[in-house]
Description:
Mean pLDDT: 88
Number of strands: 21
CATH superfamily of the largest domain: Bira Bifunctional Protein, Domain 2
Number of domains: 4
Amino acid sequence: MATTLDGVDRVLDDTMTVIADADKAQAIAGVIGGKGSEVSDETTDILLEVAAFDPKRVRATRRKLGISTDASYRFERGVDQAAIPDLLQYAVELITRVAGGERLADPTDAHVPYVHPGAIRLRSARVTTVLGEEIAIDDMEKYLRSIEFIVNREGDELLVTPPSFRSDIIGEVELIEEIARLYGYDRFSSEIRAYRPGTVPDAPMHTLSRRVRNGLIAAGILEARPMPFARNGEDSHRVRNPLAEDEAYLRTSLVDTLARRVEYNFAHMQRNVRLFEIGTVFTRTRNPDTGAPAERTHAAAVVTGDRRPRHFTEPHPPHFDEWDAKAIATAVADAAWPGSMVSLDPSVGDVLWNVSVNGTAVGTVTRVSLDAPVWAAPVFGVEIDLEAVPFAAESRRSYRGVPTMPAMEVDLALVVPDAISSLQVAETIRASAGELLESLETFDEFRGAGIPEGSRSLAWRLTFRHPERTLRDREIQGRTAKILSNLEAALGIRQRTS
């Protein structure tokens, strides 16, 4: 226990450095002095001590005690150990000349002699590699000498000895940093090099996230970087020292976090919101190695309000709806796992669709419930688990040349029972059409006269193309007949004739 200059009794432990007499601690080294050694109007004799302390221990002590002083600010950043004897002499002279004091004893040196760390070898080629700019060795020598470094040249290398007050210079890279600073950051070229500084490939998750991010930005959605906390803690972990009590838990969903940002926009009378985030969610399970909550990387987006900015040609643009959210989910899954089979199966309640990739569930499309004013439009959310499907080399996109042969289009109007989804129809058509099918899309849906109750008419456009020759009518007619036959056999779907 020690009473410091501010009158507070502080509990000390064996990790803290103190200045002590034979009985007790008189000061906390590098942080704050003790009440018992305080100078007052009645003080006549002063024991003057000049010292240097380990910056790491000073910082640790200051944090444990929860105190910050001018002394800790200085000692945490290091002091010039070699200058201590001269500084002590200078302080004594100031006291005797200015305050009229009298020296009663000669200084006692109790410190370990300062050992200079020695010269550092600086390679000219290494400077060029790190900075990407060739700097003459004469200029490097001039820059370092200008800040009191001792420099000796050995061919294309420099042996550099930092001054004692630069304890932060411990290796070659710190010298390169000093050269860059003195050379001038504004003088470095802004040219983008045609090569990479290394050969290590990007992490798979980084590559995947970049594709997803680029796709969402291209869709006009803005990226948000909120803190990873939530107000609901039923399935999560409470933070020991939360920044705010209304967000005191680690989040389990990105959509929930983005929903709070939507509420913030609504509170500021902003009804058109489109946000996305690629970030971390936390689960109830713990990492078996570290004991920390398990983490997963998700991508999520929320949209509400006008689908397009208002314009005099369209003063009242349509609002975002569930189909827009479905398109966003499809785009995210396609970007994350190129070439995979993405499926969106209808659900119930606020969950509109369940998203799966190659049969594995990866996320949902939801109608988001939040605290919204009466003038707000519905809010839709998309959340995809980017770690749900393993990374694979074959997930990379493949490219082909621009087609040079003409395409042939075939329109099919099909009578489809309501119980059969358009995805099932599309999968059957693709399986039957073969390798010449370039694209498949629906362009019309009809219910009414001529269509049986419980069914609807879906019109599909099939585009066929051969990469090397012009297609013949006969082979397209044969493929169309095969498609219709398989649709009727597999799904009971027939072609609409009227």
